[in-house]
Design a protein that fits this description.
Distance between the termini: 28 Å
Helix content: 25-40%
Number of strands: 18
Structural class: alpha+beta
Strand order of the largest sheet: 10-18-17-15-11-12-13
Strand content: 15-25%
Largest sheet: 7 strands, mixed
Radius of gyration: 21 Å
């Protein structure tokens, strides 16, 4: 029997308010969304930053720089509208973002020490956000400040993916912190030019594997899963990564294979074992586009979406072989997605993450560039909401401490598979 105490939520006292740009910015102009933006509209990014010592930081201190930050992010303050054809766009009406204040009856250490809590990071410490059903009144961003009983604080970012990817979300919250520290940009943000993104629209005799059609959602941008998903987060230390690479990859290959590719290969093979080699034979790989500079730029969905397909038993394959395929044989599909959605964006709805098992490379994201009172976060976790039934795995930079260049792995997978996967990773690799 579950006790009443165990059902009590450790986070309470929520207070909501709005912050708008310090002065008029968007002039009520229309900001057009790209086809890649619309492909991501049913997904939401959540990031949580933990700071151990934040005494003296009041809600006023934290909210005030957001007014200036939104002067630069004019489209982030807008609201979704539809054109006469039904295509969504952002009306830059300075509607603002939501600020949430809350309190937690645990310490930072107590929260971080519990594996169960990490699955709740994106629900309790970053506000649950869905656009619609009143799109015209739905903020694109929520920022939640949660004070812990130890004096620490967490900053939770809820970001509608239609606005931009995780790198853009990170750049936004980093700029907010820079403004709070007195470093205000001298010029406005630049608008990304898609023609320079390296993802041309090309004809190809197939539909992209990266997308999955879902039932039309109308103005309520949320889709249901057929299976119950669970999120699990774990830390892989630099020592564990070195051991993993040393026993799986030839020394001549290590310079060409990243930690992301090795970890993805390990999880792909291990998950195939849990599925008794029933797949997946196709996975999606999301990586940063080096041609896109996120700082000082309007948010964009600029990650490269690629697929890797194999014709052999993944559970019996070599880690090095899988990692090399991920590194060298992935096929970009951004152009295919753009082409598929061209003229079809009002009629169909899609999911990207979880359409196939998805590995998301956030190794290069500057999550630990966010500082409060000259202190870096002790831990950062990112998750994605709206993941499809095949699941998604995010690989992030680990905490910056004692020279440990480890990684954080956050997995959202079917509930009946995740425990089996954890057991295999623990048995074979002593991780998880």
């Amino acid at each position: 029997m579950v006790s009443a105490a165990s059902l009590e939520c450790p986070v309470s006292g929520h207070r909501l308010s709005s912050v708008v740009p310090a002065k008029v910015t968007g002039d009520n102009k229309d900001f057009e969304l790209t086809n890649m933006d619309l492909a991501m509209k049913l997904h939401y990014i959540k990031g949580v930053y933990f700071f151990e010592a934040a005494e003296g930081l009041s809600a006023y201190d934290l909210k005030t720089p957001m007014f200036q930050c939104l002067e630069f992010y004019f489209n982030a303050s807008g609201r979704i509208r539809r054109s006469e054809t039904g295509r969504p766009f952002i009306k830059c009406n300075d509607g603002g973002v939501r600020i949430v204040e809350a309190h937690c009856d645990k310490t930072i250490d107590e929260w971080l020490a519990s594996d169960d809590n990490h699955s709740l990071d994106g629900h309790l410490l970053a506000y649950d956000q869905v656009l619609g059903p009143d799109l015209a009144f739905s903020p694109l961003i929520f920022v939640q400040f949660t004070w812990f009983k130890c004096g620490g604080i967490s900053v939770g970012l809820s970001w509608a993916h239609v606005l931009g990817d995780a790198f853009s979300a990170s750049a936004f919250i980093n700029l907010w912190a820079q403004i709070m520290a007195g470093h205000v940009p001298s010029k406005s943000l630049q608008v990304h030019n898609p023609e320079k993104s390296g993802s041309p629209i090309t004809s190809f005799p197939r539909k992209p594997f990266s997308l999955k059609n879902v039932d039309p959602v109308g103005d309520h941008w949320l889709t249901a899963n057929n299976r119950r998903l669970q999120t699990h987060c774990f830390h892989v230390t630099a020592k564990q990564l070195h051991h993993m690479v040393s026993i799986t990859c030839d020394p001549s290959q290590t310079d060409n294979i990243s930690h992301f590719e090795v970890l993805s290969a390990v999880i792909w093979k291990s998950l195939s074992k849990t599925r008794e080699d029933s797949g997946p034979r196709v996975v999606m790989i999301c990586t940063n586009n080096p041609l896109i500079i996120r700082e000082n730029q309007v948010p964009t969905n600029g990650m490269v979406l690629s697929t890797v397909e194999v014709d052999f038993s993944v559970s019996k394959g070599e880690i090095a072989e899988l990692a090399k395929l991920i590194a060298e044989k992935r096929v970009p599909e951004n152009g295919l997605i753009e082409e598929l959605l061209q003229g079809n964006e009002e009629k169909s709805d899609f999911i990207v993450y979880g359409a196939n098992l998805t590995f998301i490379d956030l190794e290069e994201a500057n999550f630990y560039g966010l500082e409060l009172k000259r202190q870096k976060p002790v831990f950062v976790n990112y998750t994605i909401n709206g993941v499809g039934d095949e699941g998604a795995v995010l690989i992030l930079p680990g905490p910056v401490k004692e020279g440990d260049n480890g990684k954080i792995v956050t997995m959202t997978l079917p509930e009946d598979q995740i425990e089996k996967l954890k057991n295999i990773l623990q048995k074979d690799w002593n991780i998880c």
